[in-house]
Amino acid sequence: MLLSVTRRRAPTALARAGPALLVRGHCQVPCGIFDDPARVAAMKEDAATIRKSMVQIGELVGKDDALSFNQATRWVMTKEAHAGSLMTTLGEYMLAQRVKRELFEKEEEYVEALKAHHAALQAAMKTKQVVDVAACDALDTAIENVAPMYLKA
Fold first, then answer.
1. What is the Cα–Cα distance from 138 to 125, expressed in whole angstroms?
2. Of 4, 42, 64, 76, which has the fewest CB atoms closer than 10 Å, so is most exposed?
3. pLDDT in the model for residue 16
4. 19 vs 22: CA distance, rounded Å
5. Is-contact 55 133, C-beta < 8 A?
6. Cα dihedral sign for 82, 85, 91, 95?
7. Are 17 and 151 in contact (CB under 8 A)?
8. What sign does the CA torsion over 91, 92, 94, 100 have?
9. How far apart are CA 92 and CA 84, in angstroms?
10. What is the pLDDT of residues 111-121, one digit of tens each?
């Protein structure tokens, strides 16, 4: 299913629109503060933290001392928090605020943007459900598919 959205695409209308979009807000006020590259960087940092969490959980899970159990629990909580942060950024910042039909020249571009964001949301959700770095690979790919819409070429 991810194969249809994992290929590289040319920048969409959202990315081509340029500075005019910078006046829109990232929050629901809107406040007028908007920094797409910072959001993309934060998503990549969240994804890297999720990956590290999974690796650490895997290393700690077989140990039976209290400290290891405590640390594994903390890594699970960290993984959950960063996946949640990604989902919030994708849903509340990107989908609700930035992916608007009028920003796209063609309906197909809009639909492809929706699909890419949905795939990223699903990939982030999957990292909450598993402790398998393959889910991190899918998340990294999904972020890379969404990122060009927010970064100037």
1. 11
2. 64
3. 52
4. 5
5. yes
6. negative
7. no
8. positive
9. 11
10. 999 999 999 99
In the chain, the N- to C-terminal Cα span, in Å, equals 27
Distance CA 43, CA 47 (A): 6
**Domain 13-149: top CATH class:** mainly alpha
CA 106, chain centre distance (Å): 24
Q: Residue ranges per domain, the chain? A: 13-149
Q: Which residue has the tokens 């197909």?
A: 108
Cα–Cα distances in Å, from 135 out to 18, 51, 107, 126, 127?
32, 9, 30, 7, 6
Going by C-alpha positions, the residue among 136, 134, 130, 132 that lies closest to residue 86 is 136
* Cα angle for residues 48, 147, 111 (degrees, 5° grid): 125
Nearby residues of 75 by Cβ (< 8 Å), 6 or more positions away: 53, 56, 57, 60
Q: Which residue type sits at 56?
A: Q
Q: Which two tokens stand for residue 134?
A: 């393959």
SS3 145: helix
